[in-house]
Amino acid sequence: MNVILDSERDRRTLAWLVEQVGECALEKACTRLAGQRKPYPSNLAKILGLEPPERLTRPSRAQVQANLAAARKLLAGPPRT
Fold it and tell me: What is the pTM of this model?
């Protein structure tokens, strides 16, 4: 299955979709994408007639903390010697 995962939200949505319908149904949904639609989890959900819950749009506390730590590291710049 060649699903495009560009973000942590995409990963959470894909995991939710697998829980809801299983991998086999997702693979079939990939083959039903019309035109230039790409296999993003959101497009697959539409094909399957599902709407992911709102809680999937928000990152976990751990992910927020990791993102903040990465931003702080970038802002601090290279270590001084």
Answer: 0.73
